[in-house]
Amino acid sequence: MEASDTHIFTPWTANIIDDDEEYAEIIKQAERAIEHGILPIRILAGSSGSYFVRNPDGKIIGVFKPKDEEPYGRFNPKWTKWFQKTLCPCCFGRGCLIPNQGYLSEAGASLIDQKLRLNIVPKTRSVRLAAESFNYPAYQRHLVSARREINYNVGRHMHGKRVFEPKGLRPKLGSFQLFVNNYIGADVFLKQIEQNPLPKEVMDKFQKQFEKLVVLDYIIRNTDRNMTNWLVKYEVHEAPERDKLLQTLSSPHLQPDTQADNNDLNPQESSTNTNEILIAAIDNGLAFPFKHPDEWRAYPFHWSWLPFAKIPFSDEIKSNVLPFLSDMNFVQHELCDEIQRLFAQDKNYNRRLVERQLSVMRGQILNLVQAMRDGKSPSQLVQMPGVLVEHIPADESSGRKLFRHKFYDRYPLFSWF
């Protein structure tokens, strides 16, 4: 068998991405890599089938999470969730989430992040990919292998004639999140700064990034934000060569003609070492509930116990997000309508359930706006009663949408979990 036959090629179902050239190019790189045998690598951690996707050079460029390999998906390759579903049905999943729609939640979190210009979620969309390293049922693999074998054997005796079209494995629908480099887990970072505190100006930058994470998680009502699924990058950039030259020119041992050159330099262009600290919010697949948690567990935000959560929201984050979130037209048309269009892509789309998801999200936004206006902290925000903002069907000829507020007064049995 020739080298080209060692991999199962797939005629791609086109991923049409015409509004983001950079993201579209990364997806094309992933497709080309798979075609040339550089297959995605399954991630060992976690309870679902998720994969590191590489480019033709073998570099990791993204994380792909197929819909049918989610924790309770049909082809989840990890047995732990099957064990839970089979033997512990009373603890099956999160009762406030729609099962097997984590890929939409991942893409939805990225959408909210972009709309509010938070820039903490690595860009994520729903795409289709196929690769031998994904978990397919055995019959599909056997069928493709049989077709390939027949074509090879027939082709040797009939001048390359094919009996079957070289169809490959069916592309899987899932979320594709861009990979971020030079980040560490928040749990590791917090331990490091506890032992070696950073300068105040750096911690001020971290606080602003932290507040963005709070805004995102609260709006999408993330039920799985722990200390391992948000990342931190801290880098110190040395002063540019021009600054080093200025330091050299300030030496008393300079020659006269060199000293004259110093007069031509603009001191405003000089800068000292700069510190960059950024947060990346990953693993957003367990968000957008259709009701507030009200059964066994509360699914709290683990960041709410950090000292940073006890500091009131800064004026900067308020000025950045309040103009958007205070505008009901923006909330409805730019956030809710876009989320609804995104979720409508799923074959199991249920408009009634999605509207309930949006009712929770509107209520979260209402609480967030009120907390910011009242000068509250993230810790105080998460203690506010849950609210639903429901859409009331009205006369379509009026062109107006009416809403009603309703406090959610049901609470889970173990609220301290």
Automatic annotation (TrEMBL):
It catalyses: a 1,2-diacyl-sn-glycero-3-phospho-(1D-myo-inositol) + ATP = a 1,2-diacyl-sn-glycero-3-phospho-(1D-myo-inositol 4-phosphate) + ADP + H(+). It is a peripheral membrane protein. Coiled coil: none annotated. It comes from the Eukaryota. Its EC number is 2.7.1.67. One of its GO terms (biological process) is Golgi organization. It is an enzyme of class 2 (transferase). It is found in: Cell membrane; Membrane. Keywords: ATP-binding, Cell membrane, Kinase, Membrane, Nucleotide-binding, Transferase. One of its GO terms (cellular component) is lysosomal membrane. Its main location: membrane. InterPro entries: Lsb6/PI4K2, PI3/4_kinase_cat_dom. This is Phosphatidylinositol 4-kinase type 2. It comes from Adineta ricciae (Rotifer).
